[in-house]
Design brief:
With 128 residues, the chain is mainly β. The chain contains 1 helix and 11 strands; from the N terminus they run E-E-E-H-E-E-E-E-E-E-E-E. A hairpin with a 4-residue loop joins strand 7 and strand 8. The longest helix is centred in the first third of the chain and has 6 residues.
Length: 128
């Protein structure tokens, strides 16, 4: 069974930076599109960023574009989300997800529930 394991969450002040990691198998990193989602208390899960299986294409939600950066390191079997200029509204549980389908497919559209792999989530809290 393939697994995704997130890490790197924590408490950070507004304006600060944090990097999330998602450990995956080599097979997943090489063959799956991967992405980050987040869910704030009382809110729906929302898309944050995604990267194509090749790593050549990246996609961002408008709310994080220019502040968050998704990348993957196949040698380390890890997906990253570098978050900068953090805002209070970025507070949420962040989830890593992966699916063999391309980002343009329906699985990557709300509500995202059919994506094949999900991590357990890591909490990011941004304080003032």
């Amino acid at each position: 069974q393939e697994q995704l394991v997130e890490s790197g969450g924590g408490l950070v002040q507004a304006g600060g930076s944090l990097r999330l990691s998602c450990a995956a198998s080599a097979r997943t990193l090489s063959n799956y599109a991967m992405g980050w989602f987040r869910q704030a208390p009382g809110k729906e899960r929302e898309f944050v960023a995604a990267v194509s299986w090749s790593g050549g294409n990246t996609y961002y939600a408008a709310s994080v574009r220019g502040r968050f950066f998704i990348s993957k390191d196949n040698a380390k079997n890890t997906l990253y989300l570098q978050m900068t200029s953090l805002k209070l509204d970025d507070t949420a549980v962040y989830y890593c997800a992966a699916d063999p389908s391309d980002y343009s497919g329906s699985k990557w559209k709300y509500p995202y529930k059919t994506l094949e792999l999900w991590g357990q989530g890591t909490l990011v809290t941004v304080s003032s």
